[in-house]
Amino acid sequence: MSLQRFTQHPWSNWMKGEGPDSDIVISTRLRIARNLRQHPFPLLATDSQAEEVVRKVKEVIDSSSMKKKGAFELLSMEDMKPLEKRVLVEKHLISPNLAEESRKGAVILSEDESISVLVNEEDHLRIQVFLPGFQLREAWEKGSKMDDIFEKQVNYAFDEKRGYLTSCPTNVGTGIRASVMLHLPALVMTQQINRILQAITQVGLVVRGLYGEGSEAVGNLFQLSNQVTLGMSEADIISNLYSVASQIIEQEREARQYLQEHSRISIEDKIFRSYGILTHARTVESKEAAQRLSDVRLGIDLGYLQACSPFVVNELLVSTQPGFLQYDAGQKLTAEQRDERRASVIRERLKCNS
């Protein structure tokens, strides 16, 4: 494997599968934060100390127990160009923090990109698992097995009272963050979304945008995750998130049914108008593309655009991002050039499936 293997396509192999409730849940992600005992946390480590962590992690990756899990590649941030790192951010394989601030950072990627381990980001290790659809328990099981492999070969920073120790106090305890990416256009259209978001914060959960903390919720995509990691078991965290997400999924389905029964012409017009614009526009900005792709995705899920694939829409959410557009073009592009290329990419992909 090589870096190009992970940057040449906007999709990951795991994205090709259809998980449970995939009409509303785009993907499930699990992240486990861990640090190595007797090693300064990344924010305080010298370059040589950070390099020692990478060396220890490389030994785990090369071990027989890890090889039983499949092929993995360790890639250094120092060896990547800025545009290559940006593509990995847009694919959610690395965080913006690792791409921009880490001196001796690295990422470990599985062949199908369903597992991504960030090295020397905010913590020494951030084990990430990605699955299609609504698969919280499955993601936890897969992430836990990866965590066990590391824990058998390196000494984790752990306290009997506080649990796993992390750079940020909000991650102390279990160190896990589970999240589901939800597509909620009907709840937005029926103006129920604000009420739901306010209620979510009262049960220890948080909602973010497409790219996590600090990002905007564009294209009616909302990332729902746990906020509390201390004082709850892993099973309780997963169960709580699963319960709340299940209720939101049901509410979105009810809102979609309501729109079809009471505003059918309006919803059809919105869907086909966006589809028409995207398949004919010569220039389109990022936010407009995300919103209109959301309309098209809704049209596919409701059966109005039966010849279109939801996978193509998911792919376009990545391939129309600034970094990937420029990487695919092989050069830096101005905002106007990106808007033109974005429109061209969307026209080509949607018409291939219409």
Largest sheet: 8 strands, antiparallel
Q: Bin the helical content.
A: 40-55%
Q: Specify the CATH homologous superfamily of the largest domain.
A: Glutamine synthetase/guanido kinase, catalytic domain
Number of domain units:
2
Strand content: 15-25%
Distance between the termini: 34 Å
Mean pLDDT: 91
Low-confidence stretches: none
Shape: globular
CATH topology grouping of the largest domain: Creatine Kinase, Chain A, domain 2
- Summarize the helix and strand pattern as letters: HEHHEHHEEEHEEEHHEEHHHHHH
Question: In CATH, what is the class of the largest domain?
Answer: Alpha Beta
Strand order of the largest sheet: 2-3-4-5-1-8-10-9
Number of helices: 14
Which architecture of the largest domain would the CATH scheme give at its second level? 2-Layer Sandwich
Features:
354 residues; alpha+beta; Creatine Kinase, Chain A, domain 2; 2 domains; two-stranded antiparallel sheet; globular
